[in-house]
Each structure stands twice: as C-alpha cells, then as structure tokens.
Amino acid sequence: MTRIVAGTVGGRTLAVPAKGTRPTSDRVREAIFSRLEHLDVLSGTRVLDLYAGSGALGLEAASRGAAQVTLVDSARGAADVARRNVTTLGLGAVVRVVADTAERFAASLAATGPGGPGLDLVFLDPPYDLAEEELARVLSHLAAPGVLAGGAVVVVERSTRSPEPAWPSGLEPFARKDYGETAVFYAEPAAGPLA
Questions:
Q1: For residues 64 and 30, is the Cβ–Cβ distance under 8 A?
Q2: Which residue from 99, 142, 143, 188 could staple onto 168, CB 3.0 to 4.6 Å apart?
Q3: Is residue 194 scored above 60 in pLDDT?
Q4: Minimum mean pLDDT among 11-20, 38-47, 92-101, 145-154: which range?
Q5: Domains and CATH numbers, the chain
Q6: Residue 138 pLDDT greater than 80, yes or no
Q7: Residue range 91-118, pLDDT digits in tens
Q8: What are phi and psi of 169, to 5 degrees?
Q9: How far apart are CA 76 and CA 191, in angstroms?
Q10: What pLDDT is stored for residue 22 in this prediction?
Q11: What mean pLDDT is predicted for residues 35-40?
Q12: Alpha-helical runs (H) found in the chain
C-alpha cells in the first residue's frame, strides 16, 4: 500500500497503476522529504514530477506545502490513476497531470521556459531499465537556461546497480543516498547563468 507520509493529506492512501510502475517506498519517500525539508525547498515551491506513475512524489510535495505541482507520465493508465489520486486527495487546485513523455515535456520547457519563475524542485523516478542516454537528454533539457530557479533541487531515483546519471554542465550533484536497491541522487543548478 502506498500512502502520503505527511502534510495536509498525510496518511491517505494512493491508488497505484496495476502494472508498469515501481512506486517509491514510503521509507525512501520519507527520507527524501526529510532532506528536502532540511534544505527548505518545499513550502510555496513549483514542482515537476517526471515519470510520475501514481504521482506519489509530487503529491507528497503538494501535501507538504508546494504551491504548484505538475505530474508527467507517458502511460495513459498511470496518468489516469494520478488524476484520480489528485481528485481523491482534493489537490486539484495545486496539482495538474500531463500525459506525455518526460523527454518531450522537458524539451518543451527548455524551448519555452516553465511559464514564470523557474522550477524549484524536480523529481525523476524513471523505470530502472530506462537507457542512461535518455535520462541524460532529459537532465540536459532541465539544465537549459530559465528552466530551474536558483537554489533548485533535482532528485533522481535509480537502481543502485545503475551508474550515476550523466550530469549535464548546468547541473552539479551534491549528494547520493542508498536505500537497499534504490539510489537517490541530488543535484542543483551549476554556478553561472542558472544561479
């Protein structure tokens, strides 16, 4: 069972797609959000959750005070489940769901910008078998000028057997934490044009 760990809808359960996703465990989500609260990047922020699945990471951010959350998943079934979760939790004023590929959505942000100030927090929890080259392209789009706000945090979840993501020149990793089979990487905008 997947649930929201804390915040305004803490303890509520989430529906998950019947197949094709690997929801982040409550333990790993709790650890991620503990670090993000320590970094003070939750309250009033603009959040993007790529490869969202049920939307657990983005919905957790909304529950903990994010001002605007976009959940993106290419699987129609996953996007439908995420929409139901948004409605069930009453978070429709804060959260929107987009059925699109992470790469195409990130490329559109790189081309046009996020439509206002840059994103404060981005989650990428792709399938463990996603090609490293595709992940690198998505990260490169996110590193384009204007996509991320200064002080933004990018969180990438991978298998501990996967290599560290190939960080583009606009992003600098600052932490890695392993939880069993799950490796969580944290990065921030590189000093320079994005900062």
A1: no
A2: 143
A3: no
A4: 11-20
A5: 2-13+29-189 (3.40.50.150)
A6: yes
A7: 999 999 999 999 999 999 999 877 778 9
A8: -60, -20
A9: 38
A10: 66
A11: 94
A12: 26-38, 56-63, 76-89, 102-112, 132-142
Contacting residues for 120 by C-beta, under 8 A, at least 6 apart:
41, 45, 46, 47, 148, 149, 151, 152, 153
Taking the model in full, what pTM does it have?
A: 0.93
**Token pair 């790189």 is at which residue?**
110
Write out the two tokens for 64.
């903990």
pLDDT range class, residue 27, cuts 50, 70, 90: confident
Pick from 50, 16, 67: which is nearest to 127 by CA?
50
Transcribe 81-92 into DSSP letters: HHHHHHHHHT-T
Residue type, 65: G
| CA–CA dist 93, 8 (Å, integer) | 14
- Length of the chain measured in residues: 195
> What's the mean pLDDT in 71-95?
96
The answer to whether the CB of 102 falls within 8 A of the CB of 51 is yes
The values of phi and psi at residue 119, to 5°, are -70, 140
- Structure-block tokens of residue 62: 């909304």
Question: Quick count: other Cβ atoms within 10 Å of Cβ 12?
Answer: 15
CA pair distance 52, 155, nearest whole angstrom: 13
Q: Which two tokens stand for residue 67?
A: 């001002």
CA 113 to the chain's CA centroid: 17
